[in-house]
Description:
Layout lengths: L2 H4 L18 H18 L3 H7 L4 H9 L17 H14 L1 H21 L2 H13 L4 E4 L15 E5 L2 E12 L6 E8 L4 E7 L5 E2 L14 E12 L11 H35 L1 E2 L2 E2 L4 H30 L4 H25 L11 H13 L4 H13 L6
Parallel strand pairs: 1-4, 2-4
Antiparallel strand pairs: 2-3, 3-7, 4-5, 6-7, 8-9
The protein binds 3-thiaglutaryl-CoA and flavin-adenine dinucleotide (FAD).
Amino acid sequence: MSHAVSQLPALDPLDVLDIDALLDDEERAIRDTVSQFVREQVLPEVGDWFERGVLPLEVIRELGKLGLFGMHLEGYGCAGASAVAYGITCLELEAGDTGIRSACSVQGSLAMFAIWKWGSEEQKQRWLPPMAAGDSIGCFGLTEPDAGSDPGAMRTHARRDGTDWILNGTKMWITNGTIADVAIVWARTDEGEIRGFVVEKGTPGFSAPEIHRKLSLRASVTSELVLQDVRVPEESMLPGASTLRGPLSCLNEARYGIVWGVVGAGRACFEAALEYAKERIVFGKPISGYQLTQQKLAEMALELGRAHLVSLHIGRMKDAGTLRPEHVSLGKMGNVRGALEVARSARTILGANGITLEYPVIRHANNLESVLTYEGTHEVHTLVLGSALTGENAFR
Length: 396
Ligand code: TGC
Ligand code: FAD
């Protein structure tokens, strides 16, 4: 090693490419605030929440107090932060648990964004300030039991009745559903339009039973939304959206957060594996000294560095206004796959300890199985990118 190289600061194993140097002071400050919240209020409890299958409502409300809900939106009590700052937030939250990042994504990028982008001025004034503050919790109902990857096949139906709408149908796998004060429900009208409705908790005919027996995203509330002749006034319809473009535009926002978030889940697994490898003695020496372990760690650092750089690049494109949905698909595909590989490899380094909640690794690995599926499966994003590359629609 040359003299010049040896004078460089020591490599930070959690940021081997020194991506920190590419952030500005405000971005670092937001990162530090969120990371402290996760260290102090999430990490000590999250294994227990995961085991019990709960995410306490107070923790979700705390994200509002920190100003993280809809933080990349302008006005109506939202922080108006950059896309990169929002991405960094997702990364740090998901280093705690995917369920925490999901709560933030669903509130800010799906429920709030739908109102912010497609709602009337009255809807924005009414809902966005309390949602930004965490006083009102939202959910986003697009998926149905028989319409997941193909939301255009939805059966939930909206029928006009005078100046009201009557909603009927079932939504499935809806994050925050049971605890939500307000649901954004997407439905097909008799005219064949796809319309979004703001449905308040307690509206007669509307219920949101929780889905149990999940082995992934256990520290997250997942629900059905059941709508039986739910009558809502005309003013509850989002006036700006009339096709699938409405809900799909919201998905871009949440998928963007996932591109960043999974880097946090992967980093947490890598950190646990590195610490463990240095301390675990097998055949008389730490397993970190064995070349096969070092190869695993080096591959993990490579994958995380690559994913982190992709996130930052995509974030800068979003801030510059040059980001396309295909870029988000590329980021979601690559980064979720990379994070899952990191989590699975970390699990092997921990041996039997890799399967307990005493360490974060199996929790993150199980969570990432959901992330691989939600917000567009790996296959859907592959085909979005494939269609963009070839000019051939791969779906129909
Ligand atoms: P297609 O005919 O291609 O498009 C219909 C209309 O939508 C427009 N569009 C988009 N607009 C904005 N952003 C996008 N990404 C868009 N993709 C398409 C398109 O231009 C068209 O507009 P217009 O004005 O001409 O009507 O639609 P398709 O039916 O062929 O479907 C395409 C496909 C398969 C890519 C799409 O349906 C899809 O993305 N499927 C995956 C569904 C999905 O991701 N669901 C997620 C539910 S929410 C969730 O999982 C939350 S998880 C919790 C958490 O985030 O933490
Ligand atoms: P399907 O669409 O039935 O797909 C099954 C398999 O077929 C997948 O592997 C898929 O990739 C593959 N496939 C589909 N089409 C093709 C094709 N053309 N070529 C090749 N393979 C294909 N939804 C919401 O609306 N709101 C939420 O808040 C929400 N939260 C969620 C939380 C969790 C924990 C989970 C697990 C899901 C959540 N979802 C939510 C639903 C999620 O978006 C859907 O599960 C996802 O879109 C996939 O739909 P599906 O499960 O019906 O799978």
